[in-house]
Give the backbone structure.
Amino acid sequence: MCRELLEVVEVDEIEDWVETVDRVAGLDLGKASLTACIRVPSEQRPGGRSQEVRDYATTTGSLLELADHLRAQSVRLVAMEATGEYWKPVFYLLEAEGFTCWLLNAHHVKNVPGRPKTDKLDAVWLAKVVERGMCRPSFVPPKPIRQLRDLTRYRRVLIRERTREKQRLHNVLEDAQIKLSSVITDLFGVSGRAMIEAMIDGQRDPKVLAQMAHGVMRSKIGALTEALRGHFEDHHAFICRVMLQRIDTLDAQIGQLDDKIGQMIAPFAGQVTRLDEVAGIGRTNAQELIAEIGVDMSVFATSAHLVSWAKYCPQPRQSAGHDKQRSTGKGNPYLAGALGEIGIGASRTNTFLGERYRRIARRRGKKRALVATGHSVLTIAWHLLADPDTHYLDLGPDHYQSKINKDRQARALIRQLQHITGQQVLLEPAA
C-alpha cells in the first residue's frame, strides 16, 4: 500500500513539472550589469532544452543589443526579479520593445537552499521557474498610471516633510517658552502665522502679539497673552525664519504637484468622482488609490484578490492541521498610508464605514479597526472601478443593528444575568 502511494506521488510530481513556455529569458539584475539566461527548445535533442547565458551592461545600447538577441531567438517572455530600483529601466525598455515582461517577487522565486548562489545560477533558476509555470508575475501598472504614481508618491513625501518641519518649529517655540499650541489648534493658521512672523521681526510684547488674533481667536486674547509670555530671542527668530521659508517652499512644491496630478488624472475623472462618493476618501485619496491600484480591475480576479495583494487580510499559515498565528504581512506602504487616512476620516462620520471602525475599535483596538476599514474600502473601490455604471450607496450606521435578532439577543442577555445573579429574571412591559 505504501509503495503504491509512493508511486502515485512520484507520478503527480513529474506531471506538475510540464514545460509551459517554449522560449523564455530570465534576467538577474544588478546596478551596472545583468546576466541573461535564454532557454529554448533544443535542435539536437527532440523534447530537450538548450540554454545560453550571457552578461550585458545596463546601459541603453547594451539593453538594445539584448533585445535584438532575444528577437533572434524568438523569445517573447522575459522574467526578472524585483531588485531595488534596478529592474525599472530594464523592464521599461524591454516593454517598449514589444516584449512581455514579468516582474517576480523575490520571495516567490527563492532558490533552493544548499545550492551555490551566483548571478549565472540565479538567471538560470528564474528562467526554469517561469518556463514551468511555477510563479506568477507581480502587478506593474501601465505607463500613465506609473507616471501618476510617481507624482502622488512624491507629493506624499513632501507632505510628510512639511509636517516634520512644522513639528520642528513647534519644538523651537517650546524651547522659547511660547505655548501657542496650547491655545491655538492650528499653529500655522492666520492668527498663529501672524504672531510667529511678528516675533521673528522683533516684536516681543505678548499683549501686542495677542491682539493679532483673528475671528473666534479674539475671545482667547487673555490666554494668548499668557501663552506668549516667554523668552523668544534672536537665536529662536533666526531658526524659525529658516523653517518658515522651508515650509513655504514645500507648500509651493506641493501646489505644483497638485496641478500636475490634476492634469494627469483628467482621463480618469469618472473613476475619481465615483470613489469620492465613499465617506472618508476625498479627491486626494481617490487620486492616490487610482495611482496605486490602477483603474483596470481585470488584473485582480475578484475584490478578495485585490485585498490579498494589498496585504489587508491575514495570510494563511497552517502546519500539521493546526492554524498558526497569522498576520497581514507588509504590503504597499503608500497604499497603506492612503487607506489609513481614509479609515481615520471615515471613523468621524455617521456612516457604515464609520460604524464599522467604531464597533471593531471597541473590541479589538484602533489598529485592527483601521485594517478592517481598509479591507472594506478596497472591496468597495474594486466594485466601483470594475463597473463604470456602479455607484456607492451607503448602508448606514444602523446596518449591523438591523441584522441582529433582538428577541434572541434579549434571551441571551437574560441567561447571562441569571447566571451571574443566580435569580430568575422576568421582563415587564415599560410604562
The chain has a mean pLDDT of 87.
